[in-house]
Specification:
The protein is α+β, with helices and mostly antiparallel strands. It contains 16 helices and 14 strands. The chain is about 45% helix and about 20% strand. α1 packs across α10, α4 runs parallel beside α11 and α5 runs antiparallel to α6. About 5% of the residues have low confidence. Bound molecules: zinc ion.
Length: about 450
């Protein structure tokens, strides 16, 4: 970015936020990227505590899930799939997909896996899918609450009720429709839209799929116009139908599983907060509003100065967003699709998924009352220390920072045994080098 302004010959530019490309074959680079992302997520969650009104969300990440207020630090060694993981037990979680960068990540990963499984099952049995996007036409100044209730919700209800849609659904053998609401904000104000993943038992002809998209759009658009909002226009971005087959033929996505992963991820993680920048580059995702409002923008000058500006407008928009999204479900239709496919239904709630604690070995118990003040503000650093230096790295980190901690119950090791081990190691090394004292 080169949004530069000049003062006294000095030019300023926006500092790059995160590394652009990560070499996935380099474990150090991968760990660096993981640390950066976690640091940012935790920092955003902390900063948002002064924005949200919802107590459960502002309490997320604080101690309190154990009656004594203790927090247990856990460690899982690297596996074939992931590097080592530091986890915490005893923290409160909120499970709010709209508002919490930490919980929404966990919940959306879980949802994406469910959708991917359903989609792959359907297509393996000869089925098919399309991803249909329905947008609203927005003007600056229309409150998000209105666009959601009179736009997205009224429009989607009409799609469900439409006779034309129902008849087409029946004729084409629709197994289910998973619908997700995505919200961005741009120069024309709030821009909520719906992604609908339509899954079929067989493979309907292309023309029939387009007809279904058109029928859905007609019902959607008419209902929104009836509510007094500007009617969406199909040709100018109101309707977009992404075909599994086209994508595969074009070579943009090599396989069904890649498309399934793309569709699942697209309507879960990215739909919620949009980790990735909006394709048109003009709209901000919720994640970007969070960054701009809470972390701010870091500027660097040509002569080595730095400054941070925060965007108060973004904070105001987020406050509006919190109230407006309260009554809206971000995702619907997954359970129905699982049922139609005869898959065992997943009944875990978002709160349960977010509250599921990391496994692994208990490494240290942080005494009650110390997590929130001494550890939580720098918890990302503790997690990184664990993943780089293992269980002893976690204990050293706590000791160095003066955090009162104890060994987990049943642990045979103490600092004494660690010291003995170290002394024995030293003696062995010295003996091997011929420096032994005897
Ligand atoms: Zn949370």
């Amino acid at each position: 970015m080169h949004l530069a302004s000049a003062d006294a010959g000095r030019t300023w530019h926006v500092a790059p936020r995160a590394r652009v490309q990560v070499d996935r074959t380099d474990p150090v680079a991968v760990q660096d990227a993981r640390d950066d992302h976690r640091t940012e997520r935790y920092a955003i969650r902390r900063g948002l505590r002064r924005v949200w009104r919802n107590d459960r969300v502002t309490g997320c990440g604080r101690a309190g899930a154990r009656p004594d207020g203790e927090v247990v630090v856990r460690y899982s060694p690297a596996t074939a799939a992931t590097g080592p993981v530091t986890g915490f037990s005893g923290l409160l979680t909120c499970g709010n997909v709209w508002l919490c960068p930490e919980c929404s990540g966990k919940v959306s990963a879980h949802r994406a896996a469910r959708i991917e499984r359903a989609l792959t099952t359907a297509v393996d049995r000869g089925g098919w899918a399309v991803l249909i996007t329905l947008t609203t036409r927005h003007r600056l100044g229309i409150p998000l609450g209105v666009l959601l209730s009179d736009g997205v919700q009224a429009g989607w209800r009409a799609v469900g009720k439409s006779r034309a849609v129902r008849e087409t659904r029946k004729r084409l053998g629709v197994l289910g429709i998973v619908r997700a609401v995505e919200i961005t904000h741009g120069p024309n104000g709030w821009h909520p839209h719906v992604h609908a993943l339509v899954v079929f038992a067989g493979r309907p002809p292309r023309s029939a799929l387009d007809a279904l998209g058109a029928a859905m759009f007609r019902a959607w658009s008419a209902a929104i116009a009836r509510e007094g909002l500007p009617a969406p226009i199909a040709d100018s971005g109101g309707l977009d139908v992404s075909h599994l087959g086209t994508r595969m033929r074009e070579g943009t996505l090599a396989s069904l599983s890649a498309w399934a992963a793309y569709a699942a991820k697209g309507i879960t993680g990215e739909a919620i907060m949009g980790a990735v920048k909006d394709a048109k580059g003009r709209n901000r995702s919720i994640r970007e509003l969070m960054r701009d409002g809470v972390l701010g923008t870091r500027w660097e000058s040509s002569d080595g100065r730095a400054a941070v500006t925060t965007d108060d407008t973004a904070v105001e928009l987020l406050r509006e967003y919190e109230i407006a999204t309260k009554a809206v479900k971000q995702l619907t239709g997954v359970t129905e699709l699982e049922r139609a496919l005869g898959l065992d239904e997943d009944t875990a709630t978002d709160e349960e998924i977010a509250a599921a604690e990391a496994g692994g070995e208990d490494v240290a118990v942080i005494a009650g009352g110390y997590w929130d003040t001494l550890v939580e503000p720098v918890a990302a650093d503790l997690a990184a220390a664990g993943e780089r230096f293992g269980p002893d790295g976690i204990r050293r980190w706590l000791t160095r920072r003066g955090v009162p901690w104890t060994w987990p119950t049943g642990s045979a090791r103490t600092w004494e045994t660690i010291r003995e081990d170290r002394d024995q190691d030293t003696a062995r090394i010295l003996a091997a080098a011929g420096v032994g004292s005897s």
